[in-house]
Recover the amino acids of this structure.
């Protein structure tokens, strides 16, 4: 269960994680040691796919091809992802460095137990296929590229985050042997919604950054209901309409996060460290939504919506205390949400 393979590859994975996600690097240390390696490796695989999808130097067809190759690498022990690495320059971001060293992550993945690989592989492959689909769509649109509908937003969020919810649920079951089948089925039923809640929170807090890159995850049909175009959301003359649109997205995210709360309380209380890992992500998200809800500069391109470092540490400390107690878990959620 601990995972074999090259210690140098595992050390690379440990070292690169905080460079590509400080928040996730903080959270993963909360997991049981025997589960940490599998979750870290899975997360890095997802970040490789995400980096390919976001790469501005690649054409939509180029992204599709690389994402397809990446998915195939998960089926093939010994695959080194050379084409993926070659597509990224030797200088650049930490995310690009991760793709250039994808062979190390792939070797670490193939060194996991067969049961762990089977829990991870289909979901990362589905993520890659979905990202390829949306990369192709993005390339056909001129100007600000926006999703057409709320249904399309849900589909995108499923591919990039709902899949992760199912992946983690599978790993949790492997590493917590006393999980009854009925409990696992309940977790599986909630896993997509948990992922959607976290992804929608990221979309809401990063809305200005995404627009600067020429992309909007705010659906056109949601904007039309409020009487505004996605292109005009940051226009001060449409401030009232823009706030209506963002309020609708925040309400949607909260609906999914309430499912995430049920997911967390469905986890066995004995799975203490897994509960802490999931609850910190949930609490960070609901804190962030509360900030976004109150922030008049949510759509300001020069402003970043985020919770403070002190709030992060307070949340982690509180979660350690309350994680085994469902009543306290729910109460703290309501407190952070501002009463519901």
């Amino acid at each position: 269960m601990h995972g074999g393979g090259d210690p140098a590859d595992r050390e690379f994975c440990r070292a690169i994680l905080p460079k590509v996600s400080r928040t996730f690097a903080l959270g993963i240390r909360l997991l049981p040691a025997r589960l940490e390696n599998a979750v870290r490796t899975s997360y890095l695989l997802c970040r490789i796919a995400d980096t390919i999808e976001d790469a501005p130097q690649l054409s939509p067809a180029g992204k599709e091809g690389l994402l397809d190759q990446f998915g195939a690498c998960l089926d093939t022990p010994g695959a080194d992802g050379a084409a993926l690495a070659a597509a990224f320059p030797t200088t650049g971001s930490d995310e690009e460095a991760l793709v250039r060293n994808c062979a190390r992550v792939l070797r670490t993945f193939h060194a996991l137990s067969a049961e762990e690989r089977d829990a991870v592989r289909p979901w990362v492959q589905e993520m890659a296929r979905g990202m390829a689909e949306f990369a192709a769509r993005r390339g056909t649109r001129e100007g600000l590229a926006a999703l057409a509908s709320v249904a399309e937003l849900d589909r995108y969020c499923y591919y990039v985050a709902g899949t992760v919810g199912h992946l983690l649920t599978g790993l949790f079951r492997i590493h917590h042997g006393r999980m009854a089948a009925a409990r696992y089925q309940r977790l599986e039923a909630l896993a997509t919604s948990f992922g959607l809640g976290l992804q929608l929170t990221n979309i809401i807090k990063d809305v200005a950054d995404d627009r600067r890159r020429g992309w909007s995850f705010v659906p056109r049909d949601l904007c039309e209901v409020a009487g505004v175009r996605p292109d005009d959301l940051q226009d001060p003359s449409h401030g009232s309409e823009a706030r209506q649109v963002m309020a609708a997205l925040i309400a949607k995210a909260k609906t999914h996060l309430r499912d995430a709360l049920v997911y967390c309380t469905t986890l066995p209380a004995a799975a203490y460290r897994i509960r802490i890992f999931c609850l910190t992500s949930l609490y960070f998200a609901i804190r962030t939504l509360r900030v976004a809800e109150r922030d008049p500069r949510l759509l300001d391109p020069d402003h970043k919506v985020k919770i403070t470092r002190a709030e992060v540490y307070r949340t982690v400390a509180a979660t350690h205390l309350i994680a085994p107690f469902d009543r306290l878990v729910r109460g703290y959620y309501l407190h952070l949400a501002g009463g519901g």
Remarks:
- The mean pLDDT is 91.
- The domain at 1-140 is CATH 1.10.600.10 (Farnesyl Diphosphate Synthase).
